[in-house]
Automatic annotation (TrEMBL):
Gene3D superfamilies: Apolipoprotein. Keywords: Coiled coil. This is Biogenesis of lysosome-related organelles complex 1 subunit 5. Belongs to the BLOC1S5 family. The keyword Repeat does not apply. It comes from Trichoplax adhaerens (Trichoplax reptans). Residues 66-93 form a coiled coil.
Length: 151
């Protein structure tokens, strides 16, 4: 046996024992084909649907919402201006009237309105405090969750 023949045989034995790249490559390709056939590109279809929905929200719904909110803000501003003008006119009219016998009645009405207003403001403050408390609880809960995720 020549040295050349020994070297070839040794190389062949080494390749069969230690070089599995071709076999592994074939197995990986087979596995990929099997997964593609079984799943039928479901993941790709789901990603495309998600992408379409986000594009729809970005392109169509977001501008519609912004436009609707701007319209509502303008409408609310107009109503506030109208109410302010009406109140100003009422105050001018009330201040220009002479004090008559009906004045005690208007004072009692004003007292009732003041009491109602105080009650309304108290309720609004309670509701604001409740919303603030709920917000703080949710923020604490979210921060706890995120800190758990980080660790």
């Amino acid at each position: 046996m020549s040295a050349e023949q020994v070297f070839k045989d040794t190389s062949a034995i080494y390749a069969r024992l230690f070089d599995h790249r071709a076999a592994i490559h074939g197995e990986v390709n087979h596995l990929i084909k099997e997964l593609e056939i079984k799943r039928n590109d479901r993941e790709l279809m789901l990603l495309n649907k998600c992408h379409e929905k986000t594009r729809h929200v970005q392109i169509q719904l977001h501008p519609e919402c912004v436009q609707y909110l701007q319209h509502q803000i303008e409408s609310a501003a107009e109503k506030i201006n109208d109410l302010t003008q009406n109140l100003s006119e009422m105050i001018k009219k009330d201040s220009s009237e002479e004090v008559t016998e009906t004045r005690p009645r208007s004072e009692s009405v004003a007292d009732e309105f003041a009491a109602e207003w105080d009650e309304f403001m108290r309720e609004m403050n309670e509701k604001c405090q409740k919303v603030d408390n709920e917000y703080n609880e949710k923020m604490k809960h979210l921060s706890d969750d995120f800190s758990e995720l980080k660790t």
